[in-house]
Amino acid sequence: MKNVKLLTTSAPHLRTQDSTRKIMIDVLIALAPATIAATFFFGMYALVLSTLGMISAELIELFIMRVLRKDKNFVPNGSAAVTGLLLALNVSVATPWWVLLIGVVFAIAIVKHAFGGLGQNIFNPALAARVFLLVSFPTFMTTWYKPIASFGGWYTDAQTTATPLAMLKLQGFSKVMESTNYLDLAFGNVGGCIGETSAVLLFIGFLYLVFRGRIKVVIPATYIGSVLLIASIFYTVNPERFGSPILHVLSGGLMLGALFMATDMVTSPMTLKGQAIFGLGCGVVTMLIRYFGGYPEGVSLSILLMNALVPIIDRHTQPRIFGRRKA
Question: How does this chain sit within the bilayer (predicted)?
Answer without folding.
Answer: Multi-pass membrane protein
